[in-house]
Every structure is written in structure tokens, then in C-alpha cells.
Amino acid sequence: MYDYSDIIVEEPLEPSPLCQILYSDEFRQLIGIAKALMRNNEHSERALEITERVIEKVAAHYTIWSYRLSIVKGLENYSLAKELEWCGQIALHNPKNYQIWHYRSLIIELILKRNGDFDLKQEYPILEQMLDQDSKNYHRKCWKKT
């Protein structure tokens, strides 16, 4: 776990007069740190870690996924294969989350851009798991090998 004691978390000016969302103090702190890092345009391992922690709480947070992608692109020696593996684990716990699948496709595009090669067949196991989890998905029958 990284140190975030240098980060100044700004509180919102006023709560919404219509509907106050009751976030936990932990989530408020996490998102506050993430917003401060975004404002500072920080692309570091600790920024990557805070995005992971926010995504664990709210996997559909589009802005955090976007920030995470910019961090991954900015870290020169960061393993894209490791990122794809991490993303797969998040996807297994959130199978119907558009942000995860979009992010995953962007990481694969980045791998192709950097390496020029990516075996799409390695995506089959995770796709099969996702389809198996979704009993309403009509593609499931097409996917199964006969």
C-alpha cells in the first residue's frame, strides 16, 4: 500500500439539495484521493493502486477506468499482460459491466500497437466463463463446442 499523506482531498462545496448519496467515509476518501491525483495528472504506481481500490468498490466508474488507462499508457515498463489478467479478474466479478469490457478491448489494442501481435484465442476462456455465468445470453449455445 502506498502513502497518500501528501494528497489534499477537497470536500464538495455543498451537498446536493435534492438527494444526498450516502457514500461510506472510506469511499469518499478513496475517490477524493483519486480526484486529487487526476487533478495533478499523476501517472504512477500509487495512482494505479488507487484506481484499483476505487474500481473494487464501484466497477462502473467510467472516469476512473479512463484515468487508469492513461496511467497504464504513461508507465513505460508496466506489463500490459498483467493488466489484462487483472482486468479479467475484475470482469469475472462484474460480467455485465460495459466499462470493463471496453477497457479490456483498449488494453488489447494497446498490446497490438506495442507488440504488433496478440492471439485473440487467449480470450476464449474468459469469454466462455462470462457466457456460462449468463443464463439469459442467447450466444451461449452458439459458443459451446459440440
TrEMBL record:
Gene3D superfamilies: Protein prenylyltransferase. The keyword Magnesium applies. InterPro entries: Prenyl_trans_a. GO terms for cellular component: CAAX-protein geranylgeranyltransferase complex; protein farnesyltransferase complex. It comes from the Eukaryota. PROSITE patterns: PFTA. The keyword Transferase applies. Pfam families: PPTA. Its EC number is 2.5.1.58, 2.5.1.59. Its cofactor is Mg(2+). Belongs to the protein prenyltransferase subunit alpha family. PANTHER family: PROTEIN FARNESYLTRANSFERASE ALPHA SUBUNIT/RAB GERANYLGERANYL TRANSFERASE ALPHA SUBUNIT, PROTEIN FARNESYLTRANSFERASE_GERANYLGERANYLTRANSFERASE TYPE-1 SUBUNIT ALPHA. This is Protein farnesyltransferase/geranylgeranyltransferase type-1 subunit alpha. It comes from Pichia angusta. The lineage of its organism: Eukaryota, Fungi, Dikarya, Ascomycota, Saccharomycotina.
